[in-house]
Specification:
It is a single chain. A 5-stranded mixed β-sheet has the order 1-4-5-2-3. Helix 1 packs across helix 3. It has one domain. By secondary structure, the chain is an alpha+beta fold. Strand 4 and strand 5 form a beta hairpin. The chain is built from 5 helices and 5 strands. This is DUF2288 domain-containing protein. It comes from Brunnivagina elsteri CCALA 953. Pfam families: DUF2288.
Length: 95
């Protein structure tokens, strides 16, 4: 049985902003800073490691998309992101 890190790394995908808009409208998109590994964040959320998540949030390494980001992405709907779905959230990292 694969461990959670292996399983999540196989689920990392690439998506255009256009495909992510419905998730953003439901406020389920979490922006992951390039300074943090997307898989590490996925593992922490899936494993309920709230202390790790809180540290990243406090350091603004995990955020909701800002109004400015949403505006930029809406004008460039083909912008690409690395994505990882951890229900109900979609983690996105700008490429």
């Amino acid at each position: 049985m694969p461990d959670i890190r292996t399983e999540l790394s196989e689920n990392v995908d690439e998506a255009e902003w256009d495909w992510l808009i419905p998730h953003a409208q439901r406020d389920m998109v979490i922006v992951v800073s390039q300074l943090v590994d997307l898989i590490d964040v996925g593992v922490a959320i899936a494993s309920d490691k709230t202390s790790d998540i809180q540290v990243w949030m406090d350091e603004a390494l995990l955020t909701k998309p800002s109004t400015k980001q949403l505006g930029e992405w809406n004008t460039n709907r083909s912008k690409r992101f690395n994505t990882l779905i951890i229900q109900p959230f979609v983690l996105v990292q700008e490429k």
